[in-house]
Amino acid sequence: MRKILPAVLVLSLTLAVPAPARAAEPGFEGYLREAFASTGLPGMSAVVTRGDRVVYSGGFGPGVTADTPMRVASVSKSFTAAAVLTLVDEGRVELDQPVVTYLPEFSLADPRSQRITVRQLLNQTSGLSDRTVDIRATQRAADLTGYVAALRDGKPAGEPGARYEYCNVNFDVAARLVEAVDGRPFDVALRERVFGPLGMRASTVGDDVPRGHISLYGAWVRRAELPGFRGGAGGVVTTASDMGRWLISRNRATPDSLPAGSDYAMGWGVESVEGRRLLVHSGNLFTYTAVQALDPATGYGYAVMTNSAALYDDMYDVMLGLVALANGSTPEAPGGQRQRLELGLGLTALVAAGLGVCGVLRSGRWATRRAGRAGWWTGLRLGAGLLPAVLLATYPQWVSFLSNGRTVTWAQLTYFAAPLTITLSVAAVAGLATVVARVRSWRAVTK
After folding, report:
1. What is the pTM of this model?
2. Which Pfam family is an annotated match for this chain, by its short name (predicted)?
3. What domains are defined for the chain?
């Protein structure tokens, strides 16, 4: 995910309404139907564009159509960047000016924050990081003004402009900058500057969307989205039909204009897919998942969205299949990875529970065999039984570490990671019960 010169993406928002959808190009609908069946998703919508027309759009699952609203999570970042770029196009914002030029309230505890530029926000090179700002405080904010105020005690993790680090704060600050310069709430400004001119009449920023789903050992469970602030970084709700209009408006963007060595900018990244350099951005909330991609070489655009979230993200695989199909390949339908992963976790939980029951029931025999010869090996065996409990106690910390420092909370781990959370909890309880039972039995036989 990577850096794009702003001139490429500056909106020429001249009512860029796509041509009416024609008959689907061969293969897209059949592939998507097969992918939907093999992934076992509760609902999915998708759109494929080429040049200035929609070549396929549709929905799969109960009540899901191309016009069903879906949260698109971090795909929102490209819309926020587009809103900023309309202000650049009007001469009201300069990308290389400090953010405080337009947003004096943006004041952190470190004076380096005063040098963060608008471009650095949109390129994720500002130095802002989940590790050095109070993410939990920002999630409690009621609006973008409160969000920026919650950053007051934070600081950049490094020198502004020195390195790329993905952080939602960048785009929520950018959204507040849009409010400050435009003079209207962000949702209104985005509607008037981006959605409206493109004919995206069903798109908005907010929570007006049905409950999504989480995957629990292969079964889909409907849940309300986890509360938390979602503004410019992840607040957009849209449809496959509207995403078609958006992708058509973006089809001039090209990775060929990326400066050497850069990898993200303006809410888009560059990834190698099927031997091609595509502009891509994915989005993951806790009950919805989405991905968008553009292939500048062929003019194809793709967006796939689902009303679900799980440990394994099927949306990216579905998008890869669409790219392969557009390039003349015959992709296999994705699917099965989520089911196999969660089946493995379920079996692990059952084995852990069984071992815990056996450990408790046989603790007396274990203690009798070791009576009078307790030593380091016995202590090591007992300590091994505590390992799952230690992992559970530090669970958010090591998941955060594996997520490149992104803040992870216990509440979040009961959503997409629910099967892993339950399995680890079962193993921890089983291990603790075995250790306690063995210690008590050993004390009883050595009195």
Report:
1. 0.88
2. Beta-lactamase
3. 6-326 (3.40.710.10), 337-445 (no CATH)
